[in-house]
Amino acid sequence: MAKRALSASTAGLTWDVFAELAGIEPRAFKSYRMPEDSKDFRTMPPHARAAIEALIVRANSTALAEECAPYTIAPSLVIPALAALVMRLARYSVVEGRLIAGTSRVPGSSAGLTPEDRRALALVSRECLTNGLVDFGAEIHVLLEACTQPLGTWLKIDDVRSQGLDLTVLIHADEGVPTYEAQELAAGFSTLTSSLEEQLFMKLSEQLKQFPEQDADAYYTNIREFVVRNPICTPHDLNRLDISSLLWTVLQQECYQPVPDSWAIGGEVPICAHCHNAMRPGNLGLICRTAACATDLPPLVGSRLPARGMLRVSRGIRRYWVEPGFDEIRMFDRLRAQDIPCSLYPHRDRVDIAINDTIGLDLKSYTSPEMLGQKLRRSIAGLAYYDARIIVLPDRTLTNVPSYLIRLKAAAERVDVQFMGFTQAAQFVESEWRHA
């Protein structure tokens, strides 16, 4: 993406010239571009990433002193710049617990927008005004609210249509945290060196490093499975979890918080019979707060628990563990019910489910097949450890997004991975096991 942007102003831009402009030794620069599973791959250090981003700014922007001045930046940068803005503000809000303010940040203050944030807002304003749209970049809270809606409904520009991002949402409306698509779009543009998920679970990861590898793997699986199966619980439920006291403290402080009074109905919280999350009033009665459950299964109250003293998972945990975990647990329980030897989140989430250490299943919840394909084209991560590698998509996603699997295969450009819907993947594993 950076090379395309710079090519517009730098004639004959080869990769070696690009490396020279960024001040990076060409051989090192080449290793950053290798696939992650290559023996020659090296992770790009933060200062190298910053040098490349600085090149883009210098090559394409006008006077930076005026925060909202028009910028002569290639239009293709507006979407990754917007996604990077969402990721930065999510770090302030979700990880650090700060309020997002529309004022400019001043020295010594941690609140307000940085010049980098202002430049992203200016880019959005430029695209909106150029295309005759409402100026969503004029105020940060207006822009963030718009990001909870599909890009195709408010940012009606050619880049959104050409990249297949019409249905892509950058911020989950209920939890106010970035989507997987936002993280992927920001990759390579944001100066953040770790994903929001990694930042959220940093304390847990640090504590796990203190244990022998086998124990740490088991603790991780126990904790994550407990959280997914118990998005609502009591302190007594937490006490029954067989883990180290250090991990128990992290789990209580980082993953759970008191149930708000607004969730109570007559002093009680209705609990979903399917996923055990809380339920809330809807137009036609109670509906589950887990979006995947509410979409796939009929509403059914399993129990009603006193609201006082109850705990719920925090919003980041709810989005990155509980929501995708709905399908992961369903798949795991289905296979285990047929005595298929499967393990959940093995080796600290190398894959979501492993069958007999030969088949790896990774369940993905991307609305955009192009964004997921781009991620997989770069790396298949832990799936590389398995003979059979399967990316599993929710059946509801394949129903709602036209030609999802065809578009995903074209975008991923991988022949070493199979792409299947939830039902197809379950049937495939069951068939393979019967004939083994």
The main sheet orders its strands as: 8-9-10-11-12
Helix content: 40-55%
Q: Segments where pLDDT lies below 50 for 5+ residues? A: 60-75
Overall morphology = globular
Structural class by secondary-structure content: alpha+beta
What's the total number of strands? 12
End-to-end separation in angstroms reads: 45 Å
Write down the domain tally. Answer: 4
Q: Average pLDDT across residues?
A: 85
Tell me what the structure shows.
Helix content is 48%, strand content 11%. With 436 residues, the protein is of the alpha+beta class. The protein folds into 4 domains: 60 residues, no CATH class; 134 residues, no CATH class; 118 residues, no CATH class; 111 residues, Rossmann fold, CATH 3.40.50. The chain has a 5-stranded mixed sheet, with helices on both faces. A 3-stranded antiparallel sheet has the order 1-7-2. The chain has a two-stranded antiparallel sheet with strand order 3-6. α19 links the parallel β10 and β11. The two termini are 45 Å apart. About 4% of the residues have low confidence.
Compile the SSE list and pairings.
Layout: H1 2-7, H2 15-22, H3 26-32, H4 46-60, H5 78-95, H6 115-130, H7 140-146, H8 151-154, H9 158-162, H10 180-186, H11 196-200, H12 202-208, H13 213-229, E1 232-233, H14 235-239, H15 245-255, E2 256-258, E3 268-272, E4 279-282, E5 285-288, H16 291-296, E6 301-306, E7 311-313, H17 315-337, E8 342-344, H18 346-349, E9 353-355, E10 359-363, H19 369-378, E11 388-393, H20 395-400, H21 404-412, E12 418-421, H22 422-434
Parallel strand pairs: 10-11, 11-12
Antiparallel strand pairs: 1-7, 2-7, 3-6, 4-5, 8-9, 9-10
Helix pairs in contact: 5-6, 5-10, 12-15, 13-17, 17-22, 19-21
